[in-house]
Amino acid sequence: MPTFADKISFCIMLLKGKEIANQIKEEIAVEVEKITSKGHRAPHLVAILVGEDGASKTYVKNKELACQKVGFTSTLVRLPETTTEEELLTKIQDINNDDSIDGLIVQLPLPKHISENNVTQAIDPAKDVDGFHDVSVGKLTKGQDTFISATPYGIVQLLDRYDIETKGKHCVVVGRSNIVGRPMSILMSSSGKRGNCTVTICHRHTEDLQRYTTMADILIVAVGIPEFIKGDMIKDGATVIDVGITRVDADTPKGYVLKGDVEFESAEKVAGYITPVPGGVGPMTIIGLMQNTLKSHQNKFNS
Ligand code: NAP
Asked: Measuring CA to CA, which residue among 35, 28, 17 is closest to residue 291?
């Protein structure tokens, strides 16, 4: 049975992405108000969704709702599963050429017959608010101003809002995907406000993973395997950022529950701070996207 003190510390250690995201949405809404009061149009985000993937539909819906909340214009382009790569690339070109649009995202994953790389690289870097284009990634790597991939951007801001010191800390990132793990490792090692870490990046060929994870002051996990990291893989007092979100079959009204990559029950006993799933990194990812869209609009109108 947890004591009262346990419950208090439990409340303190949660990194509540959802709450921080709501605060930042209000801040963005104020900026949008300023923009429109100057006579400019509101920032406009377009999302393309190909096919009927249930999780993707939910993610896109959440992005649309966030746009409404902050006062952006949002457009959802729904395309059937049978869409060819050529048709999708043509649609992207049309959007690239449309001056009334600031940001374009194509929800991943795409059907297998479409190259994600070709699609990502077809987006105008000036509208690449997901930060997946080679130009964005290259600039990020060189520490230049750019659109930062939304999830790592959101995580850095979460650390910032909770005033978690990163300078000189050892950050271990588990997972090296192009959209999360790799850009995350670059950001944490960069000289930005919440960077300056010494970074270790782990993947499926890492030998003795636990040896590295238990050395982490900040442990960021993005592997997509539910409850992969257990409490005994975490250093006492570490900050744990759980990026994973997987639908696991369960006897619930929806037929599933959402699980992170970290086993929360054992991890919260050792971690200093930890993100919940859901309600941790997910809402902050949407914030990263909203901020990138606002930035794109500001780049255009210098507003
Ligand atoms: P991904 O592209 O599948 O990459 C997974 C990474 O995990 C790979 O680098 C892989 O290593 C590594 N990995 C797999 N098994 C491992 C093992 N046994 N030991 C160590 N590393 C291992 O996934 P992703 O796109 O980064 O996404 C990861 C998770 O985050 C998913 O659950 C996804 O749904 C979630 N996600 C959440 C958000 C959010 O907003 N909350 C955003 C994006 C993603 P190799 O490179 O060696 O294969």
From this structure: 28
* Model-wide pTM > 0.90: yes
Pocket test for ligand 1, best of 156, 210, 211, 243 (most atoms within 8 A of CB): 243
**Domain annotation for the chain: domains and CATH numbers:** 38-124 (3.40.50.10860), 150-282 (3.40.50.720)
Q: Distance between CA atoms of 112 and 102, rounded to whole angstroms?
A: 28
Q: Is the pLDDT at 3 greater than 60, yes or no?
A: no
Residue 1, pLDDT score: 45
Select which of 25, 91, 102, 107 is catalytic: 107
Q: Are 93 and 122 a contacting pair, CB within 8 Å?
A: yes
What are φ and ψ of residue 125, in 5° steps?
A: -55, -25
Q: How far is CA 144 from CA 128, 138, 190, 193, in A?
A: 15, 9, 10, 14
**Is 63 among the catalytic positions?**
yes
Which residue among the candidates 25, 102, 128, 130 is catalytic per the annotation?
130
pLDDT in tens, 204-246: 999 999 999 999 999 999 999 999 999 999 999 999 999 999 9
Does 6 participate in catalysis according to the annotation? Answer: no
CA dihedral (44, 157, 26, 245) positive or negative: positive
Average pLDDT over residues 268-280: 97
